User: Fold this.
Amino acid sequence: MLSKRNIAHHIDFSAGEVILIDKEKGISSFTIIRNLKRIVEIKKIGHAGTLDPMATGLVILCTGKMTKQIASYQAAEKTYEGIITLGGITPSYDAETSVTKIFDYSSITNADIEEARGRFLGEIDQIPPIYSALKVGGERLYKKALKGEKVELKARKVKVFEFLIKSINLPEISFKLRCSKGTYVRSLAYDFGKALNNGAYLSGLRRTFIGDFSVDDALSIREFENLILNAEEVIL
Assistant:
């Protein structure tokens, strides 16, 4: 494994490596793969779950024979820390698109927020955001959204194991979330606003854990590049 905790000097991408990367804001998970290929031409590489461009945090990449482990990493529970902003909704359910409707949140109390939080524990029904990479009819949903197409999406069951409110400074609510594969935190933020008879969108997100893997052990792209430059042997 290539991480801050395990700085290997003999790297064998062909046999298979697991790489922990701390994604920066503003780039996609696919851009990370392109960056790694720019640094070293890895023949076979895939990621075990994307993060939206706005989000930061842990992305697991696998090369060579370790790509067979991608499904198991994807199935692991995820932990996030983020910010929900009340008082508005956006088409993408996050800050990537502009607020299209404003709500008055002045009467919302801490008790209201705590009561709403409790509704999102355990197994819940969730509709994915239209601005997502899910495919419908062979086309990504976000492409349909950009063309203004109407798509009827069905609710999916996901599990929320932990949903903690860390601080409240309205309109912002800081939270920690531990959830199952397939959970859209953007949809949870949108639904959280509805539970308060208000509007809400996700204004910040960082993935801190995938299963037992921590973002604290992950490498930045620059750190990965330095690791490759200082390695005694790199096998492609």
